[in-house]
Amino acid sequence: MSKPAASPKDWSDVVKGAKRELLLRAARDEFAEQGLEGATMRGIALRAGCTTGAIYPLFDSKEAIYAELLKQSLAALDDFVAAAVAAARTPEAQVEAACGAFLGYYLDHRFEINLGLYAFRGLKRLGVGKPSDDELNQALWKVLERIALPLTEVRGLKPAEVRPWVALLTSQMIGALVLQIAGRLDFLDTGAETLLRMMLTQCLPGGAAPKGRKVSRTKKQ
Known about the structure:
The protein is mainly alpha-helical. The chain has two domains: 9-60, Arc Repressor Mutant, subunit A (Orthogonal Bundle), CATH 1.10.10; 61-221, Tetracycline Repressor, domain 2 (Orthogonal Bundle), CATH 1.10.357. It is built from nine helices and no strands. The chain has helices spanning 8-38, 41-48, 52-55, 62-86, 91-108, 110-117, 130-155, 159-181, 192-203.
């Protein structure tokens, strides 16, 4: 029995989706080279091989494109962390698994740590508009909550009390990631995962810190 023919709307949706992905791939290159501030819709259009007019039906600004890339990145990060947590049996192991997955994901996706920090052309306080910033902060908290919930149980904290602990772990991981990617941990003969293990021994009373994997110092984005 033959399959029914695709409707004009179905075909239109497929074409629209393909154009959207093409623009997002082009935008990754534009943001990687120019940062959010230096990137332009014209630059993205040139990389995608289209006109700027072809972009606006899909995205109304470069900030909207950046927000979509970061939204996709955070969703992939959350899936990765969630899978690691699901395999852990105790709250202590869940904290360790969540942190290890968070760090490991960004070590393997270095473009995305720059994306999340808006750091392609140096660290600055930037944003993509309050509504998108709020949505992205909520998406990030969804990831960090996978650390927060078991950590609340481990340390016997109230939900509001766990946030500084999550901030401590997150700032340590982000800082270690930046230093490792920049090659500034080499001369100290250490790495981001070693630092995370040390931090976890402080945050998890009686908990065994996870063993780190071997990370190549020469790996590039």
